[in-house]
Amino acid sequence: MKVLLVLAHPRRDSLSGRAADAFATAVAANGHTVECADLAAEKFDPVLREPDEPDWSDDDKVYSEAVRREMARIERNDATVMVFPVWWWSMPALLKGWIDRVWNNGWAYGARKFPQRRVWAIGIAGATEEAFAKRGYDSAIRTQIDIGILDYCGVSERRFELLYGSIEGQPYPERILRRAEELGRAF
Ligand SMILES: Cc1cc2nc3c(=O)[nH]c(=O)nc-3n(C[C@H](O)[C@H](O)[C@H](O)COP(=O)(O)O)c2cc1C
Question: Of all atoms in ligand 1, which is nearest to the CA of residue 124?
Fold first, then answer.
């Protein structure tokens, strides 16, 4: 399978970046190929402007060149995996804006559905699983991303994973990297 690995972190050597690498290495060892989309390094503009605003009366709207480039990058792969740090119990604005602009009407939802069957989202969280559960942040982010975005766009082989405790000190970061590798092996 050809996998598009989307990373949304300002620093490639962050824990999120290293988790993405651990995932990618394991996925590649399973015989898949990986194309990396490092949105920050590529300076992707996450702000949805008028050319990329959905036109509800036009399922065939031609979006901006930047968005068409992103759509082509998804279309030439069989699956997408998004790796991101959890910011404010959600995804970074960079990734949200990539979805706002690229997962657009008539291409990802509406008249047509997202062109790939398999999309995974892996969030690297600073807080522990218990802290997430205490206030319902885990079910909130899961509903938002897994149901509100992936299911809404018709992704049937979807998976949402939170890897917890990145800023809690060891053993959490090591565990996160191990878990990312396990997910890569399970892909
Ligand atoms: C702007 C910002 C907001 C954050 N919000 C949360 C949050 O809501 N919940 C949480 O568990 N961690 C939060 N964190 C911590 C990140 O999730 C943490 O930095 C990341 O998981 C791991 O480190 P990395 O940045 O090296 O990839 C936040 C970090 C930043 C910079």
Answer: 21
Domains of the chain from N-terminus onward? 2-186 (3.40.50.360)
Q: How does DSSP classify residue 31? A: T
Q: How far is the CA of 84 from the centre of ligand 1 (A)?
A: 9
Indicate the average pLDDT of the chain: 98
Locus of tokens 């008539």: 106
> Distance (Å, rounded) from C-alpha 141 to C-alpha 131?
14
Is-above-0.90 flag for pTM?
yes
Q: Which has the closest alpha carbon to 97: 45, 153, 141?
A: 45
